[in-house]
Amino acid sequence: MDATVFAYLAAGFGAAITVFGAASGIGRLAGAALEASGRQPEATGDVRTTMIIAAALIEGVALFALVICILLATK
What we know:
The chain is mainly α. It has two helices and no strands.
């Protein structure tokens, strides 16, 4: 097999791990935010804003990791 095949395979595994980690992180974040909103309904707006900012940061890191996987596979 060619080295390019292994590079694409490794990029696929890296992308899968990245997506799984990001989904797990956002799931935990949403669960904690819902629990916090249930405990203190008056703070729902603040919790939602904080959750959206944190989810955007997680997505940004995941996108960055996916770009690195693609760049390393095609190099």
